[in-house]
């Protein structure tokens, strides 16, 4: 009886990554690396400038912070609160509207309607912020006074609608509506692209299994575009946090309060724009220090957005 032996084959070696040998590939790789380093260098330079020039602003004399406060924390806290309130109002108004418009353009409206509407929404991004500010002061603010009166009459049991109603309409709520219109094109454009890239096979499979059109959207389009929807929202929030002229023109500078219908409140960016011309060296350092706070706030918001998007993508990959 004969036995045969077979030699085991050695395990196949993993293919080494292909090295970039083409001159064009090397040039392109170098350009992309250089561009990314330039962006990081610019971001670091802005932070260093704000930190170095704004460091004295944290410990100025009490009269520099007057009449808002006698220290930096008391000076920047109302401005930070106004910034957050205006941005949150803008998101509450703009995000549902932007998602709805994006969904209509990508899946519901016929092409002869969807294309002009998409162009019209995109054109809003090209309108300068000063135009939005003028429109907010001259047109929107007076039209908001009856709305404020209605909210005060029927919803005054809420602290945000309690108090005296501004007769000029120049309140933090009006500023939030103006910001909502300004960030609407950004959120709509990104969300529309995400919705339109949902795999067609997934949508057709859901419809073939008996899902209604809305159920198909809920089960295929929204899960696929969740990370893009979050990214679009956070980009809009970043624009709202840093907006200057429109908020400065709509709001009359004042202290922080939770009443959305009364005068007062301001934002960090609007305060810098309004106080920059009348600055002294001491006040300039305070303004730069508040700019550093806004820079860090924007960085934290974008970092949180990136974490949320990455977490969503990891869940989708499971």
UniProtKB/TrEMBL annotation:
ABC transmembrane type-1 domain boundaries: 80-305
Organism the protein comes from: Nocardioides plantarum
Reported function: Part of the binding-protein-dependent transport system for phosphate; probably responsible for the translocation of the substrate across the membrane.
Annotated Pfam families: BPD_transp_1
Stated name of the protein: Phosphate transport system permease protein
Membrane topology: Multi-pass membrane protein
PROSITE patterns linked: ABC_TM1 (PS50928)
Protein family (similarity comment): Belongs to the binding-protein-dependent transport system permease family. CysTW subfamily.
